[in-house]
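sry for the spam today, last one i promise. struct tokens for design, 205 residues
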């Protein structure tokens, strides 16, 4: 009986998006998945799920499962169950909203309570196109990442399509499949394929 070829196994990685309401979690996912941006804000109700395939070097393929969580307080009780088996926690704030940045600490604590150190924490400062309204400096965010043992901080703009693909490339670099590839790999060699799957919002309300 032959042993299955491990290189053909499609590994799945769960990425949960956290942060206050209206910081741009859904917009980040939508821009990455469909390369679109909607000016009309609509709050996420409960939990949304989408997935996308990424092709790495050495014929490696991974599946990113993107879980978009609601930022409203009334849904907070649902979120720990989605954090529990996640591989990456992308915690977002709005660079023009200091309160959303100050609340990062409680989101980080939620993640560590459920996953300890067995999770990659990424901090994202969204809405960088509104730099003239900035309330949070890059230095403040970098200090938070160091204190929280986060992997990296990146500023994005879903409206201007700035650094969104780079965010996901950097996430891919942190995953075991990327690290097991050749040492010569660089972010530019990660090719993204639009191979999408979605599920309806959680019927929790």
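last one done:
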């Amino acid at each position: 009986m032959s042993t299955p070829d491990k290189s053909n196994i499609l590994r799945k990685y769960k990425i949960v998006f956290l942060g206050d309401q209206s910081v741009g979690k859904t917009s980040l996912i939508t821009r990455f998945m469909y390369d679109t941006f909607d000016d009309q804000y609509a709050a996420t109700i409960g939990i949304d799920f989408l997935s996308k395939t990424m092709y790495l070097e050495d014929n490696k393929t991974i599946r990113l499962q993107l879980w978009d969580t609601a930022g409203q307080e009334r849904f907070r009780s649902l979120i720990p169950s989605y954090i529990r088996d996640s591989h990456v926690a992308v915690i977002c704030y709005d660079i023009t909203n200091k309160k959303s940045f100050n609340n990062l600490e409680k989101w980080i604590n939620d993640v560590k309570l459920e996953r300890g150190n067995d999770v990659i924490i990424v901090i994202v400062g969204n809405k960088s196109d509104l730099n003239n309204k900035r309330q949070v400096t890059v230095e403040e965010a970098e200090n938070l990442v160091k204190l929280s043992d986060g992997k990296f901080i990146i500023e994005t703009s879903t409206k201007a399509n700035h650094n969104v693909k780079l965010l996901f490339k950097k996430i891919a670099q942190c995953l075991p499949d990327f690290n097991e590839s050749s040492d010569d790999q660089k972010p530019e060699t990660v090719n993204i394929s639009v191979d999408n799957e979605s599920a309806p919002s959680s019927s929790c309300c």
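The first strand starts at residue 11 and ends at 19. ok im logging off now
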